[in-house]
Specification:
Shape: extended
Radius of gyration: 46 Å
Helix content: 40-55%
Number of strands: 9
Order of helices and strands: EEEHHHHHHEHHHEEHHEEEHHHHHHHHH
Largest sheet: 3 strands, antiparallel
Strand order of the largest sheet: 1-2-3
Oligomer: single chain
Structural class: mainly alpha
Strand content: 5-15%
Length: 529
């Protein structure tokens, strides 16, 4: 009689698994069952239930494995999910795989897909916020989890979608807008002979034909253009996958015709193919292509700056700072405070996507209604379209049609004179003067205010005290009275001045510094001689 099977528990990545030896179709095998819990007591209870069902024959090992889950984790399901989306040609599947690998896998990848709860999804989003991601990236992570678990729910692998009960965490961030070129700056860029010709063509296409994105330009094919008159063209909206037929502006038609003839009038093929390398003449990669650095480099070459350039060490062959080979000459470089080339506290530097924003802003300045502007820009949501419209001086100016025609009364146009809030009216104050008849004359005009009276009282008190102090100090001194009599009316010598004059008078009379009478320096010199 075989011994009873008790099975064994093993903790794998925080989840308990049970290994039980049993016979399946006459073959002894060791089966693993995912118990879908991290609690040991609950795992013991589930293991006992599995053993009881196997011994009684109520359920076969295959049915038990199907009931408890076949051990499929979030990692295994996500890999199959991404492969299906890539096979269908969904472009953003590559970005989804990157988001999952960097921000989701470490938190819930080892869990069974049926074990994921809303609290664990919230942990994933909170960790993404703590890592410094912007709100748009956090929204993308939540959307990825929602789509993936929704597909698992449709496949009956989970009972409910745990992401439905989780919202994007509250975040405070400064929403910076990209800098766009003015019409004058764009004209200067297009007229400069040193700017790359292909970049000029791509820039004018993005600025004038539906605000084409970088992905639209790299996917643009000659089969999408009217090669007879160049009057119409399909714009391959790479983000939505819906080509849009638009009329080509008159300004752009000769540019496209010259581009078509320079390539040998092809019937098909990319309009802007790869120019160098092994893939020359082929279509550029549909994703992860950026012309931002190339654009800013050519903008500076064309002399388009908003801050004075700075001098930096000249770079070139033989200049390597890691080998202490520094250049002796300098070269001009963009100013670190220039918003066209560097991120500031409120704006992002200009890039190729700025042409799309400039196109949408120009539609708003031209007075195009929202429905037509959304169609020309390829936007399906009005809120998304309004984010692309940036404030410009022309948009901040009130149109004449929005201002009513009024004749304002003259009283409204004249400034109202407010009463002065001075503490006292201007008056006259005379300082005391000393004469044979000691008197003090004070003339002051003041108002009724109590505060004004208090100010007058303090001034009067100080003047009288000063007069008495001076009279007591110099009483009985005829010379001093004579000196004071020689002063101009309304003026009085200061205490320091009086002391210096009396000290000089005493020294002249033969007193020393201490006031003792003795020989002066002149008298001593005469006697010594």
């Amino acid at each position: 009689m075989p011994r009873p099977r008790s099975g064994s528990l093993e903790l794998r990545k925080g989840i308990f698994h049970c290994r039980i030896t049993s016979e399946v179709q006459g073959v002894t095998r060791r089966l693993w069952f995912c118990l879908e819990t991290s609690d040991r007591a609950l795992a013991e209870h589930k293991r006992a239930k599995v053993l009881r069902d196997i011994e009684t024959g109520a359920m076969s090992p295959q049915d038990i494995a199907r009931t408890l889950g076949d051990g499929e984790t979030v990692d295994s399901y996500a890999e199959a999910y991404f492969k299906r989306r890539e096979a269908r040609g969904i472009v953003m599947a590559k970005d989804e795989r990157g988001y999952y690998a960097h921000h989701v896998k470490a938190h819930v990848g080892h869990l069974p897909i049926a074990e994921v709860r809303p609290a664990q999804v919230r942990i994933v989003l909170d960790a993404a916020v703590d890592s410094g991601l912007k709100r748009a990236s956090v929204v993308m992570i939540r959307a990825l989890l929602h789509r993936m678990f929704k597909a698992a729910w449709r496949a009956e692998l989970v009972e409910t979608n745990p992401v439905d009960r989780v919202e994007v965490p509250e975040m405070r961030e400064v929403r910076k807008q990209r800098v766009i070129l003015t019409d004058e700056e764009f004209a200067q860029f297009m007229a400069h002979p040193g700017v790359d010709l292909e970049l000029k063509m791509m820039s004018v296409v993005a600025r004038t034909l539906g605000g084409m994105r970088t992905g639209d330009i790299t996917r643009w094919d000659w089969t999408m253009l009217d090669r007879a008159q160049f009057a119409q063209a399909f714009v391959p909206r790479s983000k939505t996958g819906t080509p849009e037929l638009l009329e080509v502006p008159e300004l752009l038609r000769p540019v496209l015709q010259a581009r078509w003839e320079s390539q040998g009038r092809p019937e098909s093929g990319p309009v802007f193919p790869v120019e160098r390398g092994k893939r020359a003449g082929k279509q550029r990669a549909p994703r992860n292509i950026s012309f931002a650095r190339r654009l800013r480099r050519n903008l500076f070459r064309a002399g388009i700056v908003r801050m004075p350039p700075v001098d930096v060490p000249k770079r070139g062959q033989g200049t390597r700072t890691d080998l202490k080979r520094e250049a002796q000459e300098t070269m001009p470089a963009p100013n670190p405070r220039d918003p066209l080339y560097f991120e500031t506290a409120t704006t992002l530097p200009v890039d190729f996507h700025s042409f799309r924003r400039a196109f949408n802003t120009a539609l708003a300045e031209a007075g195009v209604n929202v429905q037509q502007a959304m169609h020309l820009a390829g936007h399906a949501d009005a809120r998304t379209h309004m984010r692309y419209v940036q404030a410009t001086p022309a948009m901040r100016r009130m149109p004449d049609g929005a201002i009513p025609r009024l004749v304002l009364p003259q009283a409204m146009a004249e400034p109202k004179r407010l009463p002065s809030k001075t503490l006292a009216r201007p008056g006259r104050f005379e300082l005391p003067t000393h004469s044979s008849v000691d008197c003090c004359s004070i003339q002051l005009s003041y108002g009724r205010s109590l505060l004004r009276g208090a100010v007058v009282y303090l001034i009067l008190r100080g003047a009288v005290k000063g007069s008495l102090r001076g009279r007591l100090r110099f009483a009985g001194d005829a010379e001093t009275h004579g000196m004071l009599g020689r002063l101009e009316p309304g003026r009085m010598a200061s205490r320091a001045t009086r002391r210096r004059e009396e000290r000089g008078r005493r020294r002249g009379a033969g007193h020393d510094r201490a006031g003792n009478r003795g020989m002066s320096h002149a008298m001593f010199s005469q006697r010594s001689g």
